[in-house]
Amino acid sequence: MSAAAASLSAGAAAAVLLGGVLVLANGCVSLHQGGIYRKDLDEVFVAYFDNETFYRDLQFQITEQVVSEILSSPGLRLSSKEDAEVVLTGSLLDVKQHVLAEDSSQQPLLTSVTLTVDVSVADIKTGEVLRNKRLSQQGEFVSSQGEDLNTAETEAITYLARDIVRLLEEDF
């Protein structure tokens, strides 16, 4: 192969490589930044959860944790009912406690608590329910480590609040 032909094929290879890079770069440039929440549904009013169980005050803890999760989520804004675009409502439906392990004298070593809620997200202007879902989460506590029922409830409430806020991420 002559020096001119080798130079030409090297130049052609470089041109093909440059063209490929430009095509890939163009694809990257066409991506856009945006939030995971719809701009027309990112202002949320959270109503206090109802409680259909005999466990007192859990509905307030759930509501407070959901509010905390919304405040820590970039792109979502907590709003008054008058200024909100969506309203989030919920109800605590069930609380179950299970002993998972016990010692030889039948004292609980590991216990779990499962909380079940029903959550709705509705367009505040039209009243249309955009999302309705039943969610359950479990928390556990080990009594030998000084943990108690509150530890398990707090764990379950934290996981539930995260799941509830994730509902707002899904397409409506």
What keyword list fits this structure?
alpha/beta, Rossmann fold, 6-stranded mixed beta sheet, about 170 residues, about 30% strand
What does this structure look like?
This protein is of the alpha/beta class and about 170 residues long. It folds into two domains: about 1-30; about 40-165, 3-Layer(aba) Sandwich (Rossmann fold). It contains three helices and six strands; from the N terminus they run αββαββββα. Strands 1, 2, 3, 4, 5 and 6 form a six-stranded mixed sheet that branches. Strand 5 and strand 6 form a beta hairpin. Helix 2 (about 60-70) crosses helix 3. The chain is globular. The relative contact order is 0.15. The model is unreliable at about 20-35 (pLDDT under 50).
* Count of distinct strands: 6
Straight-line N-to-C gap: 63 Å
* Stretches with pLDDT under 50, minimum 5 residues: 22-37
Strand content: 25-35%
What does the average pLDDT come to? 81
Percent in helix: 25-40%
- Oligomerization status of the protein chains: single chain
Shape from CA axes? globular
- Indicate the CATH architecture of the largest domain: 3-Layer(aba) Sandwich
Structural classification: alpha/beta
* Separate helix tally: 3
* Main beta-sheet strand count, sense and barrel state: 6 strands, mixed
How many domains, in number, for the residues?
Answer: 2
Fourth-level CATH superfamily of the largest domain: ABC-type transport auxiliary lipoprotein component
Our Rg estimate from Cα atoms comes to 27 Å
* CATH-defined fold name of the largest domain: Rossmann fold
Q: List the helices and strands in order.
A: HEEHEEEEH
User: According to CATH, what is the class of the largest domain?
Assistant: Alpha Beta
